[in-house]
């Protein structure tokens, strides 16, 4: 099921996001490690702070030791988009919100089973909705 895109101008984004959120989501920035690590152990869903797109289920969150919230799979295949990222010294795969196309973080192949993926996500761009569940398919 395709997600309806949310498109705004940079000026519109600047009005609804904090400067730090704007820097991460719209400029591809990164928060400092350990500054926004969620310690939530409750059932719920992590959404994009900019567009409310569901991104990750709390049950897929794990402690990676990296200083950023880490998950082993997205909420749904359409929740995120993958893009090759050659901006740094190391080739990486960027994780982008499937609705507003904001930068969320990166995905690596060193996570736990069952996917062996580590979605390393900036906590400042996540909003936790306690008690929310993924609908049954």
From TrEMBL:
Catalytic activity: L-methionyl-[protein] + [thioredoxin]-disulfide + H2O = L-methionyl-(R)-S-oxide-[protein] + [thioredoxin]-dithiol
Chain segments annotated as coiled-coil in the UniProt record: none
Gene Ontology cellular component list: cytoplasm
EC number from the UniProt entry: 1.8.4.12
One record GO biological process: protein repair
Keywords (A to Z) from UniProt: Oxidoreductase
A UniProt-annotated Pfam family: SelR
NCBIfam families named among the record's database cross-references: peptide-methionine (R)-S-oxide reductase MsrB (TIGR00357)
Species for this entry: Dehalogenimonas etheniformans
Classification via InterPro entries: Met_Sox_Rdtase_MsrB (IPR028427), Met_Sox_Rdtase_MsrB_dom (IPR002579), Mss4-like_sf (IPR011057)
Listed name of the protein: peptide-methionine (R)-S-oxide reductase
Single Gene Ontology MF annotation: peptide-methionine (R)-S-oxide reductase activity
Catalytic EC class: oxidoreductase
């Amino acid at each position: 099921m395709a997600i309806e895109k949310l498109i705004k101008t940079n000026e519109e984004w600047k009005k609804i996001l904090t400067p730090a959120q704007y820097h991460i989501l719209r400029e591809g920035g990164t928060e400092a490690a350990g500054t926004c690590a969620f310690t939530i152990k409750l059932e719920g869903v992590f959404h994009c702070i900019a567009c409310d797109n569901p991104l990750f289920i709390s049950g897929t969150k794990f402690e990676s030791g990296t200083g950023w919230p880490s998950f082993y799979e997205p909420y749904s295949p359409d929740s995120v988009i993958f893009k090759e990222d050659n901006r740094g010294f190391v080739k990486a795969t960027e994780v982008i919100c499937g609705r507003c196309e904001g930068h969320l973080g990166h995905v690596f192949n060193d996570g736990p089973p069952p996917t062996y993926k580590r979605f390393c996500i900036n906590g400042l761009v996540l909003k936790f909705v306690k008690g929310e569940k993924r609908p049954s398919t």
